[in-house]
């Protein structure tokens, strides 16, 4: 049974507020975990469900196999009582558009559940190029994670262009300077990633030989 079915059983028609963390998570790092934790508090969410992408239509270039990215997210999220991880996009690459995922969640959980799609501000800035952005914003609010001091001008401009009342909400997260790109580069350069990713994620990166110079990721 998928995590989403388990959560639906737990909700049992109660109203709820659910965060959905979308991303490639290649790899997941402490910045992502801080974003999810802050969203829990700031938007009074019951749970945050991490949904790693399968093979997204917009991704060109190398992406670590979905199964390995998913497993890194599972070990990273395991210790938090309100974090969950779903295989939905990993198992349904054909529905790897955010609008399809949020439509599925809306059908599954029902109208009593308020959904917040959470991802990086740079990804949100591209939202008008995504499949059916205005329909997507009918299913959920979109939370755009930024580091403090981020220029909000472009997000505000984006919000003003939306018809139909969709909501894009910026969320400042201290410490979001960590990035997956930087972590991959550090591994390739033989530099430390200690404390930038959870210990068990670091263990998996080295065990599987991800991001090392000469691996397909570099
Ligand atoms: P990306 O281009 O790999 O990342 C863009 C920026 O956002 C990077 O700085 C990235 O940092 C950051 N980021 C990504 N996920 C984050 C998260 N959950 N929390 C905080 N920062 C995050 O973007 P992506 O990962 O491919 O896409 C992000 C989400 O948007 C995914 O769920 C994807 O499916 C969705 N999306 C949908 C469509 C569509 O429906 N057509 C198109 C594009 C994106 P890190 O590299 O450190 O993560």
Note down, in words, how this protein is organized.
This protein has 218 residues and is an alpha/beta fold. It has a single domain (16-208), classed as Rossmann fold (3-Layer(aba) Sandwich). It is 41% helix and 17% strand. Helix 2 links the parallel strand 1 (16-23) and strand 2. Bound molecules: NADP nicotinamide-adenine-dinucleotide phosphate.
Keywords:
single chain; 218 residues; alpha/beta; Rossmann fold; six-stranded parallel beta sheet; 10 helices; 6 strands; binds NADP nicotinamide-adenine-dinucleotide phosphate
Are any ligands bound, and if so which? NADP nicotinamide-adenine-dinucleotide phosphate
Overall number of domains: 1
Distance between the termini: 36 Å
> Poorly predicted ranges (pLDDT <50, ≥5 residues)?
none
Q: Would you report the number of β strands?
A: 6
CATH topology: Rossmann fold
- The helix/strand class is alpha/beta
Shape, please? Answer: globular
- CATH class reads Alpha Beta
């Amino acid at each position: 049974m998928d995590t989403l079915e388990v959560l639906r059983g737990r909700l049992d028609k109660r109203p709820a507020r659910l965060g959905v963390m979308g991303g490639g998570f290649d790899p997941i790092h402490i910045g992502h975990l801080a974003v999810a934790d802050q969203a829990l508090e700031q938007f009074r969410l019951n749970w945050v469900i991490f949904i790693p992408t399968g093979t997204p239509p917009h991704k060109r270039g190398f992406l670590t196999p979905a199964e390995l990215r998913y497993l890194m997210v599972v070990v990273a999220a395991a210790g938090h009582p309100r974090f969950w991880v779903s295989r939905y996009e990993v198992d349904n690459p054909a529905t790897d558009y955010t609008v399809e995922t949020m439509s599925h969640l809306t059908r599954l959980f029902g109208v009593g559940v308020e959904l917040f799609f959470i991802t990086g501000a740079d990804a949100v800035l591209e939202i008008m190029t995504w499949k059916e952005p205005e329909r997507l914003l009918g299913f959920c609010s979109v939370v755009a994670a930024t580091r403090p001091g981020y220029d909000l001008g472009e997000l505000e401009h984006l919000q003003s262009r939306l018809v139909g009342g969709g909501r894009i909400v910026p969320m400042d997260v201290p410490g979001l300077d960590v990035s997956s790109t930087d972590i991959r580069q550090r591994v390739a350069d033989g530099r430390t990633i200690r404390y930038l990713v959870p210990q068990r994620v670091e263990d998996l990166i080295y065990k599987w030989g991800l991001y090392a110079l000469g691996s397909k990721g570099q």
